[in-house]
């Protein structure tokens, strides 16, 4: 469940999640000998899932630029939002994920791991296989973009 949840949150839809998780588990099985600390299995598997999602996102973006890819999959609110979430909250989630889909894969992944999944910066760096400084830059770029483009319809200043 952890791997599926993580891949769905990063992808924004369940379109390719089963394939991604399947590939991640195959890779984990092949590399099981690389796992030094069994207590770190969850983070280790998470980094493999993140790598597989990133590869899929980059390939999809490249194919899209070449005119050979599938059209962008709409955000799957049922997979991302609680059934108890208000229509307003669901609209906000849809808008955030639509904006995230326009970001580079690395910025999007880092922001989701930190802001949606709630991982600390060190864990995000480990899962994305980059330095702490790089993770901070990626999250900052994504947050700056979202701050500049997100429009909250309930905010009275947005309509003036």
If you had to describe this structure to a student in words, what would you say it looks like?
It is a single chain. With 160 residues, this protein is an all-alpha fold. The chain has a single domain, classed as Up-down Bundle (Butyryl-CoA Dehydrogenase, subunit A, domain 3), CATH 1.20.140. The protein contains 8 helices and no strands. The chain has helices at 2-11, 17-30, 41-65, 77-80, 87-100, 105-116, 121-128, 132-149. Helix 3 crosses helix 7 (121-128) and helix 7 packs across helix 8. The radius of gyration is 16 Å and the shape is globular. The model has no long low-confidence stretch (mean pLDDT 87).
Q: What is the residue-mean pLDDT, rounded to a whole number?
A: 87
Largest sheet: none
Q: How many E strands?
A: 0
Q: How much is the radius of gyration in Å?
A: 16 Å
Q: What structural class should be given to the helix and strand makeup?
A: mainly alpha
Helical fraction equals: 55-70%
CATH class placement? Mainly Alpha
Number of domains: 1
Q: Approximately how much beta-strand content do the residues carry? A: under 5%
At CATH's second level, what is the architecture? Up-down Bundle
Extract low-pLDDT stretches: none
What series of H and E elements makes up the topology?
HHHHHHHH
- Choose one word for the global shape: globular
The CATH superfamily bears the name PhyR, sigma-like (SL) domain
Report the end-to-end length measured between terminal Cα atoms: 44 Å
Count of helical regions: 8
